[in-house]
Amino acid sequence: MNKNTLPLIETEQELEKVLSRPSSETIKTISKLKGDIIILGISGKMGPTLAKLIKQAVNEAGVNKKVIGVARFSSSKIKKELENLGIKTITCDLLDEKAVKKLPDVSNVIFMAGMKFGSTGNEYLTWAINCYLPAIIAKKYRNSKIVAFSTGNVYSMMPVNSKGSKETDIPGPLGEYAQSCLGRERIFQYFSSKYKTPIVLIRLNYANELRYGVLLDIAQKVYNKKALDLSMGYANVIWQGDANNITVQSFDICKSPANILNLTGSEKLSIRDIANTFGKIFNKKPIYKSKESRTALLSNTEKCHKLFKQPKISVEQMIQWVAHWVKIEGTTLSKPTHFQTRDGKF
Q1: What is the 3-state secondary structure (H, E, C) of 287-326?
Q2: Does domain 12-208+239-267+297-312 match CATH 3.40.50.720?
Q3: What are the residue boundaries of the structural domains of the chain, listed by start?
Q4: What residues have CB less than 8 Å from 95, skipping those under 6 apart?
Q5: Angle between the 214-223 and 315-327 helix axes, to the nearest 10 degrees?
Q6: Segment 200-245, tens digit of pLDDT
């Protein structure tokens, strides 16, 4: 892990560049990948920077490859940004099976569509998006490679003195959101087996950048002198730029039956320790409520980091970047991660 201090990030433009920077390993993957790339559900928190990274990798690899982004695009700003970089955009409701059938046949698919927040009270929509939609996509792209996003929430809580859940562990999803995410995995696994579609299922927890993430949630609580819930006392995090790079490189490990990959940082982070660090930077004493539970949602990343090396951006670096961003009142997405949730209700 690179623990060298990098320059602080002052603007969203600088942030986007850092998040969208392809590694040499990613450029190598893109250079040998056959066919174009389509990202389904591109307009979420991670999709735009992932698309920009892929486009830059295509340019640096010197290959002729289209990058296509599909979403409903409620924000025309994101659509325009992507198109200005040469990324083709298609407006589509992915739940509309007829519309999906008209999408271009592409060799490499990244599936990012999903529903989490607001799932309580909208359980039927959560299951439709997280289970029915994957079936539509898996049938449409049966002859493609598919990198599909899942979540570490499909696991049970693990003892805080453990290394976390491995890909081979039996899932134990808590609540309908996590259950529907396991359903999404099972749908992709079914079609991977039926059509021999090479797939990798990425169980991600938690991608961080400066506008969103567990570290931002903690920093804002400390800076604004608000009580921080410690009941989920530990977590794993990864810089979103590193998560973007590993996502692209995961095309190299798509297989049938579907492969499974935990994607996060290797450290088991104490929420209290992180808050205390922010407290020192801000010269403010953190306020706590609740005590650390004996279990937490934790993922074992030995497989990921054996395949793709350790993340390049350290937790220490992320903390410095996030603290500065909070101090300068940088733009945020105003979307808390709710990482403290222990009852499975989002």
Answers
A1: EEECCCCCEECCECCHHHHHHHCCCCCCHHHHHHHHHHHH
A2: yes
A3: 12-208+239-267+297-312
A4: 128, 129, 132, 133, 136
A5: 50
A6: 999 999 999 999 999 999 999 999 999 999 999 999 999 999 999 9
For residue 299, the cross-strand partners are: 165
What is the pTM for the complete model shown? 0.95
Q: Is 340 exposed, middle or buried (0-12, 13-18, 19+ CB in 10 A)?
A: middle
Enter the tokens of residue 198. Answer: 């090479």
Rounded CA Rg of the chain: 19
DSSP label at residue 153: G
Q: What is the pLDDT of residues 152-199, one digit of tens each?
A: 999 999 999 999 999 999 999 999 999 999 999 999 999 999 999 999
Give pLDDT tens digits for 20-63.
999 999 999 999 999 999 999 999 999 999 999 999 999 999 99
DSSP 165: B
Angstrom distance (rounded) from CA 216 to CA 330? 11
